[in-house]
């Protein structure tokens, strides 16, 4: 039995999309990160890094969203592209994992959540996030999907982050700069599986308040003593 530990953040939503697209039977398990549930001993036994998502498949435990997508793709044989696309699929998956996600996350952190907003940090992460998204945009100019004419886990990985792009980069008109990405996002949003993934929010209630408890849970470094 698959159990999916999630909230509605970009990385868990990639996996939710795959689960709904594939038709796999699974149990969604909400973890409220604003209540520090990810720091419990029970959860950290699954993921020592205390991050979402996590997926268990009977005795197998997988954490990191891109690792989960690769695992599920290999398990089901779905959304993995063609055999001759294997190298490109892995390359783009790790590009999202090592570049798009981290730089987008740091961009939104320094713009919206950091107690101090050093101009250099704000500029650096905004620049790098936009640079990475431009690479995605240029790739999508070459075909309907990230793997050309094949819908794959790479598109799901992009979709997870792309849905928050306006907020992350502080630009309501950002999709005008990335018309091919906008096309991709609208195509995936129109899929029934995407609607079902988004509807997970209706099954479990997550804390909405971004108070000190939430800040301590999500950004403990803010309250940690300075290193000696």
| Count of separate structural domains | 2
The assigned structural class equals alpha+beta
Ranges with pLDDT <50 over ≥5 residues? none
Instruction: Tell me the number of strands.
Output: 4
**Sheet with the most strands, sense and barrel status:** 4 strands, mixed
InterPro entries: Glutathione-S-Trfase_C-like (IPR010987), Glutathione-S-Trfase_C_sf (IPR036282), Glutathione_S-Trfase (IPR040079), Glutathione_S-Trfase_N (IPR004045), Thioredoxin-like_sf (IPR036249)
Protein name: Disulfide-bond oxidoreductase YfcG
Pfam families: GST_C_2, GST_N
Keywords: Oxidoreductase, Plasmid
Protein described:
This protein has helices at residues 10-22, 41-46, 65-76, 86-113, 119-140, 153-162, 165-169, 174-177, 179-189, 192-198, 212-218; strands at residues 2-6, 26-30, 54-57, 60-63. By secondary structure, the protein is an alpha+beta fold. The protein folds into two domains: 2-78 and 195-222, Glutaredoxin (3-Layer(aba) Sandwich); 83-190, Glutathione S-transferase Yfyf (Class Pi), Chain A, domain 2. A four-stranded mixed beta sheet has the order 2-1-3-4, with helices on one face. A hairpin with a 2-residue loop joins strand 3 and strand 4. The radius of gyration is 18 Å and the shape is globular.
